[in-house]
Amino acid sequence: MFLLAVLVLPFAGGFIAAFLRTDARTAEAWLAGGIALTAFCLMAAAYPSVTNGGVLGWRTEWIAELGLSFALRLDGFAWAFAMLITGIGFLVVLYAHYYMSPSDPVPRFFSLLLAFMGAMLGIVLSGNLLQLVFFWELTSLLSFLLISYWHHNSAARDGARMALVITSSGGLCLFAGVLLIGHIVGSYDLDKVLTSGETIRSHELYVPALVLILIGALSKSAQFPFHFWLPHAMAAPTPVSAYLHSATMVKAGVFLLVRLWPALGGSNEWLWLVGSAGLITFLLGAFLAVFQQDLKGLLAYSTISHLGLITLLTGLDTPFGQIAAIFHIMNHATFKASLFMAAGIIDHETGTRDIRRLSGLYAFMPITATLAMVAAGSMAGVPLLNGFLSKEMFFAETIEVHDNSLLDQALPYIVTAASTFTVAYSLRFIRDVFFGPAPVGLPRTPHEPPLLMRLPTELLVLACVVVGIAPALTVAPILDTAAGAVLGSKMPVYSLALWHGFTPELLMSILAMVGGVGVYVMLRSYLLVNEGPPLLRRLSGKQIFDWMMVTLSWRLARWLESKLGTRHLQPQLRVLAATAFLAALLPLYSRSISLADPLGGQFDLAFALLWIIGAACAIGAAVQAKFHRVVALIFLGSAGLVTCVSFVWLSAPDVALTQILVETVTTVLLLLGLRWLPKRIAPAGLEAATHRIRWHRVRDFAIALFVGIGLATLAFAAMQHPDTNSISRYFVENAHAKGGGTNVVNVILVDFRGFDTMGEITVLAVVALTVYALLRRFRPALESIPVPEQQHAQDTHDEAHPDRQKGDTAKDTTEIAALMMRLMFPVIGVVAVFLLLRGHDLPGGGFVAGVAMAAAFILQYMARGTTWVEARLHVMPVRWMGFGLLLAACTGAAACVLGYPFLTSYFAYAELPLVGRVPMASAFLFDLGVFALVVGATVLMLIAIAHQSLRRYGSPSQIGQRVRSKEDLV
Fold first, then answer.
1. Tell me: the pLDDT tens digits for 101-142?
2. Are strands 907-912 and 68-74 parallel, antiparallel or unpaired?
3. Given this model, what pLDDT does residue 745 score?
4. Which region, left, alpha or beta, applies to residue 222 given φ > 0 means left and ψ of -120 to 50 means alpha?
5. Between the CA of residue 365 and those of 237, 339, 360, what are the distances in Å?
6. What is the 3 state secondary structure string of 659-700?
7. How confident is the model over 722-748, as pLDDT tens digits?
8. CB 3.0–4.6 Å: which of 53, 177, 236, 473 could bond 240 by disulfide?
9. Closest among 282, 284, 307, 159 to 230, alpha carbons compared
């Protein structure tokens, strides 16, 4: 439960933060900072448990039959990452308190930031790959919201959209790759996957799974060719950049590479795919960073380059490479977060991030300048700083032989050349911003920030210095713990000593330093007057992305719509039915289907005649649907009644009861809706088009006939199939023993398949709300506005007699029927309650009872009209729906609280005075939720249709007096 508490804590804090006052800036910061610091301390306390290969775990079963569980797993590597997430998260919260403007909506900012922290903890603590993918995509969504926090800025909106599209698309590829891994291993459990490396690498699906997972990881960590989204994400507030783009989100990809290296590494495919992507990104990012004129843009491309360095180390496929990668992940998080914060301070105190306008700031903010210079030195790999140690390990690894290819032999020279650009952009950050003449024309006069705003940068820079000077005393135990969790018995011997003598990697560092100074000196004059690199200035990743988005979402979509689209429903149904029919023929082509003689058993003439009537009604409904809608509806209802009688004939009373009630309610609702549809008008030139129309009808009839025969054949074959392995036997045998009810159908709906029912009632709620929203803006066609002829004649008769009022004739003719329908309301209500209470043991249940109760409301609307009913009955259907969904969800959640899978049912017998032994099942509460939702959804649709008559017959003032406001519905 310790791990669960750490995971839930940020989400709970984010939920609370969202409801604080807009001006509660200090309270928000205290809340977010307290939660981050608490999580950090809890993780720090867990360190003794993860040393020497220790693993903490927590697991609860979700769908045990499919091997799915919610599992949390904390080893040394996950612990190190969790410390970065919570520790730097706390510093970012402190920094953001002073950075954010009082006019900014800080509740939303801190709420999203805490939720993102929780999502990142979910990634590193997940013990199940599917669970990891969920949190992976959650970080993409939350990063979109954080990057677009200043949504009034078009650059923020565009950058957020680009980040979401690329990272979430990569997440879908990751999901597909995880499914393949689960298929290969037979489990999604991380422990089992990590120990199944040989099985995975020898499988024929290894390469597809590897490519899909790499797309997900590389897109998340902004690696080539997905690197271009990160610079455009710099439109986010600087605290977001300092957190997401230094220590958390962009590190998720390299975290996954190192995490899955024992399972996926050790092959040429891994070496070339991962190593090549990392090498290209390292070189390209460093080169582009030199030519950026925006401080955060420079840091963004440097982040891309350093992430490429980490990816290259992982791709070199050696144990020492993984150690170096983990070490540089830690070092990069510290110096890059401090650099982003320093850039934010400069922007905050000067009003600009343009390097060409910034110079000589050391004289105005010496402390900030010193901190930034130390962090930039660590980024460049200057000795006595933490970046130097991991850069030395990187150079040492590139010297080793991996596959002895030409690229492998040239690798030390390539990375040395790329490192010269790293030194060059670090030197530019220091020289051009903090030295030179005093700045002129800045929006604000530069000065030091408040002490507490600078404190996070100071602590991170202090870590860079302490680790760089005394690595064996500070970071060595943590690195051993993190690397040991990944490598296990493959852990090599390495040293973090400051001096290893005059080694090739030291020579590479010296060459990179000298070369970097030379590159900066040569390019300085070019950088003062030019924008972008000399060779790649016109190549814009954003333009390529925008072109792809326009092509896919507009040009291609418009072309497909012009070729395949239609505004008519019939062609769409035709294509759907024909495609389904052809798809069903494919398995029949490869595998034959055996059918028993349908007349081999006992033949019942009466049952056959019943179905002949039903088939005739169905065909009649199809024929009459075009121009005679009421006739078609009558035929359709008759076919439904035949189906109901069939269920009774086949001893399925529960299904028959549901069928008859649903058939009745839907028929009435359709009749009410038909009133407002436009009249069918024969097209011009009907005689000339008769042949074409006849051909269309023959074609549609043929499609319907073949699809119907095919579906009937498929159903008949399924019923003839031996049921030795059928799950229905399990339901029948265990309905009472495990579900506490003798009505098998109801037990299936609320217990065995309760999760399906939960989804179905959710869909029903969405449909009802959609129907209501559409009909609120629906306006009848012109030809539907006049009242029906019969009503018009009655109104004319009333107006012709002085002693009568308009509507008296209609009232007189329906008085008896209206009285009977009014009296039926309590009767049907009692029947509905009766059906609800008996549903677990006898035919009935929440759905049937809900439909019956809705029928009672329909009768009242038909008897007295909308105005009369709503003046006396405050139904509030949206609240019924909300109560039903909430009750059903809480019933399922209660099982989880008690340690059982979601929606696990409990039943017992209670002794009641004067009543005796009464069965009590928790499934009844779920059924009650179904009942409430069905009533609310049906009545909401009824209200939406009924209000059309008020909109037509009343003036706006009358409607305002007679119709309840929209708020009354909820």
1. 878 888 889 999 999 999 999 999 999 999 999 999 999 999
2. unpaired
3. 85
4. left
5. 22, 15, 9
6. HHHHHHHHHHHHHHHHCCCCCCCCCCCHHHHHHHHHHHHHHH
7. 665 677 778 888 888 887 888 888 888
8. 236
9. 159
Nearest to 206 by CA among 217, 219, 193, 218: 193
Tell the residue number behind the tokens 């995880």, with chain if given.
178
Residue found by looking up tokens 């005393």 in the block: 473
| pLDDT grade for 788, boundaries at 50, 70 and 90 | low
Which DSSP letter does residue 1 get?
-
Does residue 383 have a cis peptide bond before it, meaning omega lies within 30 degrees of 0? Answer: no
Predicted confidence at residue 324, as pLDDT, reads 94
Tokens of 459: 């602590």
**pLDDT (average), residues 236-262:** 91
Which of these, 730, 743, 727, lies nearest to 654 by C-alpha position? 743
Residue with tokens 């979700």: 62
DSSP 50-89: HGGG--EEEEEEEEGGGTEEEEEEE-HHHHHHHHHHHHHH
Report which of 893, 873, 875, 883 is spatially closest to residue 938, judged by C-alpha positions.
Answer: 875
Question: Rounded to whole angstroms, how far apart are CA atoms 156 and 296?
Answer: 14
- Burial string for 885-911 (b: 16+ CB within 10 Å, else e) reads bebbbebbebbeeeeeebbbbebeeee
Q: What is the pLDDT of residue 679?
A: 66
Residues written for the chain: 970
Alpha helices, H only, 740-814: 744-747, 754-776, 789-800, 808-813
- What are φ and ψ of residue 126, in 5° steps? -65, 135
Structure tokens at 311: 């990816």
| Torsion-angle region of 153 (φ positive above 0: left; ψ -120 to 50: alpha; else: beta) | beta
Q: Are 317 and 265 in contact (CB under 8 A)?
A: yes
**Angle between the 541-550 and 154-185 helix axes, to the nearest 10 degrees?**
80
- The CA distance from 865 to 860, in Å, is 7
The per-residue pLDDT for 417 is: 94
**pTM, full prediction:** 0.74
With cut-offs at 50, 70 and 90, classify the pLDDT of residue 172: very high
- DSSP letter for 828, please: H
The pLDDT value recorded for residue 688 is: 54
Residue 595 pLDDT: 63
Here the tokens at position 32 are 């977010």
Report which of 304, 300, 217 is spatially closest to residue 253, judged by C-alpha positions: 217
User: What pairing do the DSSP bridges indicate for beta strands 68-74 and 56-63?
Assistant: antiparallel
> From CA 940, how far away is CA 960, in angstroms rounded?
19
- CA nearest 306: which of 399, 327, 368, 323? 327
